[in-house]
Design goal:
mainly alpha, 75% helix, elongated, sigma factor
């Protein structure tokens, strides 16, 4: 893995920057994800240098595609109006909604709250949250799905 990283990381980084509108931070994150996935499947790493390079580029492309899909799947973020901006009845609606949302979140399990916080407050992708929490990506997505469903039900 050290040899593969040394031989191909700069080319992978340049490739990932091009795929992501020259955003260096995103390219660095995706390069780390690529190398992490390659390390997890290092037994599949081809011995020949050119085949190893193609294998790593395929992983990088797939991770980039997953990242784009993940960002598109997230609902658009909306900012609640500041309490000071709301007037009259709007302030009361705002306050009641905020109380209902807090009550709904208190009913969630700690892991569901953590997943929602990581996804929607911290803005992390599901695969990144999975790595941070040490669980499969499917588990993160499942917890988020059921947590959002429970919040919607409690808010209805």
């Amino acid at each position: 893995m050290e040899i593969a990283h040394r031989n191909h990381s700069q080319a992978l980084f340049t490739y990932l920057r091009g795929l992501n509108r020259h955003e260096p931070q995103l390219a660095e994150d995706l390069l780390q994800e690529t190398m992490l996935k390659a390390w997890r499947h290092r037994d599949s790493l081809p011995v020949e240098d050119e085949r190893a390079r193609r294998w790593l580029f395929t992983i990088a492309r797939n991770i980039t595609i997953d990242s784009v899909r993940s960002r598109k799947a997230k609902p658009a973020e909306v900012r609640l109006a500041d309490a000071g901006d709301a007037a009259g009845g709007e302030f009361m609606d705002y306050t009641l909604s905020l109380q209902a949302m807090r009550a709904a979140f208190e009913q969630l399990s700690p892991m569901q709250r953590t997943v929602l916080h990581e996804l929607y407050v911290e803005g992390r992708a599901a695969d990144e949250v999975a790595v941070r929490l040490g669980v499969p990506v499917g588990t993160v997505k499942s917890r988020a799905f059921y947590a959002l469903r429970a919040v919607r039900k409690a808010m209805a």
